[in-house]
Write a sequence for this structure.
């Protein structure tokens, strides 16, 4: 279980996260929606410890993650897989070296054994025979799936997805959505998906939370969010140009 | 006037922040150098990229520097009828000053810029963040091998550049100034003492550290996209050049006053 308590983060005068509270149950897929630049990715980066908050904390399985030393934190990180928006594959390494990165760095497995594990992880995301390709030879959708395979290679208990369907065509987006669902069911992982793609949110979410002005302003099942009376959430999910979000921006 | 003072103040603060950042990176790098696991392959790969791949340009610059130095010295020495001292002056100038500094500037322009651009691109495409999520410290993975290989390879490249430069001087002196080959070689090595070679080489160890730390620091602190990478790369080369020249002056003075 992940519990985020009073998380506050400022960049200069800009308050990105403002006393944010959120909890994610074990095995749950929580989708966090919000406008671009509202702090969704910043929130994910706090969960993996890339960023440190100004105030507040995060508990993972009851452990305050900011009280852990570097070694303990690195151990915890191995329970968490993160899929970055653009894939963030290492350009200088081939697909199998990317996917098997952790095994190559920290295990005593031979290259042959690592390649076998990599093949298994790639099969989980329906990719075959691309182990020796370089990231520059892959399409956007393939890169995202390889990034997911890299996250899966360590068999994580938690997977964080940063805009998994952004920048890919609708069919690839749906394939990725199905993959998220399938992995959730097969591996029973806890997932946090950050997106502004509502189709994706409705498809994969157990629960949806909306981040607005640094706080979670609404949380509920996909149906509760779909039929909400909250004008801010309603404007966002319907994608209307006029409404409380844009009128606040104008003033 | 107020604006100029403010501008100057901002530049000063930025410079202090830069020195603070590089110093912290130096401490962190020292810490990670001694912490296992040690991956030799990454060190050797960087040695090849930084050292072996720089050989053609270092050879070219070294050879021409030696030739130019011989010609320029000959201009004066001929007037004094002391052509025999050209070999000594070429050897001393190269080992004590030109070899170390020119090699460091070439490597800074070639490898330092490449390091900033590579790490900078990794930063803006979230590859550095991805490293962290995979339980890998970016300083250990990216900075340590580059730091060690630059510190190790720059002295070797300098020795090579010194020798090529002396060969350049030899070509000019033997072919154009009618100095006997044996005489040139004898005068070269008769003049040089250990101190000349070592003061040059000690400087290059520090130049290597400066290039690695500044290049990596600029790369890890890129802001923005492609434009940010470009800016940081330029800034990395400029700052490295300035720091190398300052460090050179400092060490030359230090050796002059304290190493008799």
């Amino acid at each position: 279980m992940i519990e985020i308590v009073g998380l506050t983060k400022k960049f200069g005068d800009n308050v990105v996260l403002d006393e944010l509270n959120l909890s994610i149950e074990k095995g749950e897929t929580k989708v966090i929606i919000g406008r671009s630049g509202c702090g969704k990715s910043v929130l994910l980066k706090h969960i993996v410890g890339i960023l440190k908050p100004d105030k507040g904390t995060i508990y993972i399985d009851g452990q305050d993650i900011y009280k852990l030393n570097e070694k303990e934190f690195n151990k915890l990180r191995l329970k968490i897989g993160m899929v970055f928006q653009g894939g963030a594959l290492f350009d200088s390494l081939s697909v199998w070296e990317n996917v098997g990165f952790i095994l190559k760095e920290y295990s005593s497995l031979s290259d042959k054994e690592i390649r076998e594990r990599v093949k298994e992880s790639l099969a989980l995301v329906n990719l075959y025979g691309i182990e020796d390709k370089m990231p520059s030879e892959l399409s956007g959708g393939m890169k995202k799936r390889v990034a997911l395979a890299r996250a899966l290679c360590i068999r994580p208990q938690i997977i964080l997805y940063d805009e998994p369907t952004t920048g890919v065509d609708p069919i690839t987006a749906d394939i990725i959505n199905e993959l998220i669902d399938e992995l959730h069911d097969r591996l029973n992982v806890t997932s946090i998906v950050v997106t502004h793609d509502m189709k994706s949110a409705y498809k994969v979410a157990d629960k949806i939370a909306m981040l607005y002005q640094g706080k979670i302003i609404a949380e509920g099942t996909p149906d509760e969010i779909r039929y909400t009376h909250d004008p801010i959430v309603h404007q966002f999910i319907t994608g209307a140009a006029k409404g409380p979000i844009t009128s606040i921006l104008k003033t | 006037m107020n604006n100029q003072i403010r501008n100057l103040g901002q530049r000063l603060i930025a410079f202090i922040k830069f020195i603070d950042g590089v110093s912290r990176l130096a401490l962190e790098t020292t810490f990670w150098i001694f912490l296992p696991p040690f991956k030799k392959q990454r060190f050797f790969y960087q040695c090849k990229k930084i050292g072996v791949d720089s050989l053609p340009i270092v050879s070219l610059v070294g050879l021409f520097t030696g030739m130019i130095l011989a010609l320029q010295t000959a201009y004066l020495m001929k007037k004094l009828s002391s052509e025999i001292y050209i070999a000594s002056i070429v050897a001393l100038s190269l080992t004590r000053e030109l070899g170390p500094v020119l090699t460091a500037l070439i490597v800074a322009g070639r490898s330092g810029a490449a390091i900033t651009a590579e790490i900078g691109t990794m930063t803006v495409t979230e590859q550095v963040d991805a490293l962290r999520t995979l339980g890998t410290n970016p300083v250990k993975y990216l900075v340590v091998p580059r730091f060690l290989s630059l510190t190790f390879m720059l002295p070797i490249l300098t020795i090579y550049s010194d020798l090529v430069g002396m060969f350049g001087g030899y070509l000019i002196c033997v072919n154009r100034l009618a100095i006997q080959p044996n005489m040139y070689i004898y005068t070269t090595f008769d003049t040089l003492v250990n101190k000349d070679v070592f003061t040059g080489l000690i400087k290059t160890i520090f130049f290597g550290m400066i290039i690695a730390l500044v290049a990596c620091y600029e790369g890890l602190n890129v802001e923005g996209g492609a434009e940010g990478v470009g800016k940081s790369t330029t800034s990395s080369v400029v700052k490295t050049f300035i720091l190398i020249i300052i460090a050179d002056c400092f060490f030359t003075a230090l050796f002059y006053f304290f190493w008799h």
In short: DSSP finds nine helices and no strands in chain B. Chain B has one domain: 41-255. Chain B touches chain A at residues 37, 121-122, 125-127, 129-130, 132-137 (CB under 8 Å). Chain B has a mean pLDDT of 92.
